[in-house]
Amino acid sequence: MCGDRPLGRIREVYFPPIRPLMSSTILITGASSGIGLATALHFHAAGWQVVATMRAPERDTPLHGLERVLVTRLDVQDGPSIEAAVQEAIERFGSIDVLLNNAGYGAYGPLEVTSDESMSRQFDVNVFGMLRTTRAILPHFRTQGHGVVINVSSMGGRFAFPLGALYHGTKFAVEGLSEALQYELASLGIRVKVIEPGAIRTDFAGRSFDFVNDPTIDAYQPLVQRFFDVLTPLMATAGSPDSVAQTIFRAATDGASQLRYTAGGDAEQIIGARRQMDDASFHAMIGGQFGIDLTAISGDGNAT
């Protein structure tokens, strides 16, 4: 792919840090609550101009009425709304310096009982929505010669829990797409960053978490119960959206070539373990938390 040019000789591109001046602008998807709202408030407090986008901007939000904040509609599943929001932001503030792809949705449950609609929505929001929004803003970034694309992934983009094939599949995709785009966009002066939060206290579980199950299929029910047995204490000790907002601000302004930023002690701990352990050991550790023994499957595919 690189011809006779060795990978080790590809020149390093330096990006000067973005200074948090009044003229700096961030566009955030999914800014109505959780990480998106916390990030909008954090950047605004730091003197930035903020384009806070959401599917229903008419709803009550603490962002309404703030100076230097544009609250407008953007649905990542609706291409024209993306184009309109980007254009409105440029017309209001003159330019956009940072895009935060934050809008997300989580579908969990046994794949066997998951509908086509749920599968399509999961990938349309988390993957294709991110791509649509990024694609819409790239001409502006390319023309002005700079920009930062920040994609909110998850610690679940580096490893997986059972019953999360769809959600983890999309977050693994976000990781790979971001890694590829960093090369594609570097020569244009555009940086790409990935944020990997751990468990965070948001309304994700209430508004953006869709768990499907069929209680009549007895075979899955012990695992479903163990899943919630693990999830409940994990969420009880979850971090705050503000801590993720601080990490996002650092990624947007540090000028570093760093791609991935973890956010939260649990993310740092588990991702750190993932780096140090081989696949078999790590999978055994995760499986053990859910009462799963991956070695207890015989050669004919039946559990021993």
Distance between the termini: 46 Å
Residue runs with pLDDT of under 50 for 5 or more positions: 1-16, 18-22
Which class do the helix and strand fractions yield? alpha/beta
What share of residues are in beta strands? 5-15%
Structure description:
There is one protein chain. The chain is an alpha/beta fold and 304 residues long. It has nine helices and nine strands. The protein has a single domain (11-289), classed as Rossmann fold, CATH 3.40.50. The protein has helices at 34-45, 79-93, 116-144, 165-186, 204-207, 221-236, 241-253, 265-276, 279-289; strands at residues 25-28, 49-54, 69-73, 98-101, 106-108, 147-152, 190-197, 209-211, 260-263. The strands form two sheets. The protein has a seven-stranded parallel β-sheet, sandwiched between helices. Helix 1 links the parallel strand 1 (25-28) and strand 2. The chain is globular and about 60 Å long.
Topology record:
Layout: E1 25-28, H1 34-45, E2 49-54, E3 69-73, H2 79-93, E4 98-101, E5 106-108, H3 116-144, E6 147-152, H4 165-186, E7 190-197, H5 204-207, E8 209-211, H6 221-236, H7 241-253, E9 260-263, H8 265-276, H9 279-289
Parallel strand pairs: 1-2, 1-4, 2-3, 4-6, 5-8, 6-7, 7-9
Helix pairs in contact: 1-7, 2-3, 3-4
